[in-house]
Amino acid sequence: MSNVRVAGTGLTPFGNTPERTSRDLFAEATVAAFEDSGVPREDVEALFYGNFMGELSEHQGHQGPLMAEAAGVQAPATRYEAACASSGTAVRDAVVRIRNGEADVVLVGGAERMTNLGTAGATEALAIAADDLWEVRAGMTFPGAYALMAQAYFEEFGGEHEDLAHIAVKNHENALTNEKAQYQSAIDVEDVLEAPQVSSPLGLYDSCPISDGAAALVLTSDEYAEEHDLDAPVAITGTGQGGDRLALHDRDHLARSPAAREAGEEAYADAGVSAADVDLAEVHDCFTIAEVLALEALDIEQVGEGISAARDGRTTADGETPINLSGGLKAKGHPVGATGASQIAEVTKLLAGDHPNSEHVPDATTGVAHNAGGTVASATVHVLEEVGR
C-alpha cells in the first residue's frame, strides 16, 4: 500500500475579510499549494473540497465544480460537508483514493466565508450543525453546548476555569510567529478570567473567532513523488474517522468524545504507531474545553488529566507534547470548511522544519491532526510522519 505524500500546502491568512468570496480565497490557497509542490495542475485527477455554510453565507451550492474552476484544474470535483470536519473528511477520502490506486494526484482543501454574516448571523449558521428539532429550536448555540460539556467535565473530573485559561494563553503564545494567524497577540490568565462571559464557564477568550480563510493540499502517491523527484518529506501514514449521536442528550457522556477516540484508534492502527509515538498535535480547540477532550480521546493525556496539561506545561511549546503550535483554532482562526486541511498543512510544515515554531520540535518525526464536527458527532484523525527528502 502506497503512502500518501503531502507534496504542497497553501493557506490564506485567516481573519476578517468579508469582501472576499470563497472562490477567491480558495484560488489563493491553491496557487500557493501548487507553487509549493512543483506539481502541474494538469496532473490533478480529482478535487475534494470542504465547505459547511456556503448556501447561507454566499447563496452558493454545488461548489465542487466552481472550486475546480477557481483552482484552474480540469478534474472531477466533490464537495464534502461534515460541519467543522468538512475538509478533514475530504482529506481522508483523498488518502483512500490514492491508496487504492485510483489516482496519483489529488487536490484537497476547503474554504469558508463567515464574517460577512456578522456575529449573530454566523452563530445562527453554525447552529445548524446541531440537532434542529431538539437543540436549535430550544435555543442552544455552540458556545452553550460546549459550556454544558465543560460543566459535565468539571463535575466528573474536577478542574476550574483557570485551567482552561492556560490553554487559551498557550495557543495565543504559539500564534505570535504564525503570519497566517488571525490573532498574533499575547494574552495572560487574568485577561481570560476577566473577559466577558459567553456561556458559563466559558468566556470570550475561551472561544475561537469567526473567520474567513482557505487551505489547500496537493497529495500524491509515493510513486508519483519519486518519479517526479518531489521535495515531499512528509507522508500521511494513518487515517481514521469516527461518529457519535448528533444531539448531546442522546449521548452516554458529555465529558468524553467517543467519535474522536474511534478515529484516533483507527488512525494509530493504520499508521502502526501509538499515542506514545506522537511528538506534536494540532487538535480541534474551537473552545478551550474541546482541547482537553481531544487530548484525552487521543490518549495523549489520560482521562481526567487533560485539564491540567497546559497549566502544568506538558502541552506548551517546550513541553512533552506541544499542542497547537500553529495557535490552533483559538488563535489561528476557524474558517470552518478550511480547518481540517489547514491542520494537515501546519503539521506538515512542523515536521518538515519549515514552520516558525519548528524550532520547538527539532527532532519530531510523528504528528497528529484532529478535526471535529459540531459537538464531535463527526471526527477525523490523521497521522503524519517525516519520511525523508
TrEMBL record:
Residues 241-385 form the Thiolase C-terminal domain. Keywords: Isoprene biosynthesis. Residues 5-222 form the Thiolase N-terminal domain. InterPro entries: Thiolase, Thiolase-like, Thiolase_C_2, Thiolase_N. One of its GO terms (biological process) is isoprenoid biosynthetic process. One of its GO terms (molecular function) is acyltransferase activity, transferring groups other than amino-acyl groups. This is Thiolase.
